[in-house]
Amino acid sequence: MVEGAGDAELVAAFARGDLRAFERFYERHVDALWRHGVHELGTADETQEHVQEVFEIAWRKRRSIRIVEGSAAPWLLATSRNLLANRSRRARRGTASTAAIAAIVTMSEADDFEDAELRVLVSQMEKEVMTMSELDQKVYWALFRGELSYPEVAQLLGISLPSVKKRAHRLRMRLREHFLGAV
Q1: Residue 68, beta-bridge partner list
Q2: Which pairs count as long-range contacts for 162-170, CB under 8 Å and 24+ apart, including other chains?
Q3: Which residue among 10, 57, 115, 165 sits deepest, i.e. has the most Cβ atoms within 10 Å of its Cβ?
Q4: Contact 122, 113 (CB under 8 A)
Q5: What is the CA angle 36-38-39, rounded to 5?
Q6: Does some domain include residue 94?
Q7: pLDDT, tens digit (0-9, with 9 covering 90-100), for 53-94
Q8: Under a CB-based contact definition with an 8 Å cutoff, are residues 148 and 168 in contact?
Q9: Residue 130: CATH number of its domain
């Protein structure tokens, strides 16, 4: 089935875990992504990392890849462009901003938010949190701002400990994507 399959069939097959289908998908699209990456990035090393990242995203999002007129190429190129745009935004922010955002998003100690930039970032992050489900917001406020433990949050909200952990992980991932541009 894999040999003569189109993109829709390959994506459906590797969505079910068929590694041969993913390999065929990779072989079919790697050259176009390579050309696009080299044109944008200029170096083979950066392009190699970029193309690898695009295919890692394709594997992670294999159940939601959009096929347009029988091809996944538009989805792959859009993913590539998004990664490049995120990279450009991170570079414009500068390393100090990126470090501050990373500290917040990883929920590390940010003692008193005296730093003006840090306060602005916390405010932006909390605006993003407010777009999340009510339960996710409660987990955020209790866990990350109220400094309650996972078991305390589970008890307070009347949900299981694994649910608290899953929601906290999802919160971190969403905030990382939003602020650091991870796809």
Answers
A1: 71
A2: 164/139, 167/135, 167/136, 167/139, 168/139, 168/143, 168/144, 170/136
A3: 10
A4: yes
A5: 65
A6: no
A7: 999 999 988 998 999 999 999 999 999 988 888 777 666 554
A8: no
A9: 1.10.10.10
Note whether residue 96 is domain-resident: no
Q: Evaluate if pTM is beyond 0.85.
A: no
How sure is the predictor about 109, in pLDDT bands with cuts at 50, 70 and 90? very low
Reading the block at residue 183, the tokens are 């796809």
Quick one: which of 97, 26, 182, 105 has its CA closest to 11? 26
Q: Are residues 11 and 84 in the same domain?
A: yes
Q: How many CB atoms lie within 10 A of CB 160?
A: 10
Contact at 8 Å (CB) between 141 and 107?
no
Determine the pLDDT at residue 20: 93
The last residue of one of the domains, among 58, 88, 118, is: 88
Give the domain extent around 167.
Answer: 106-180
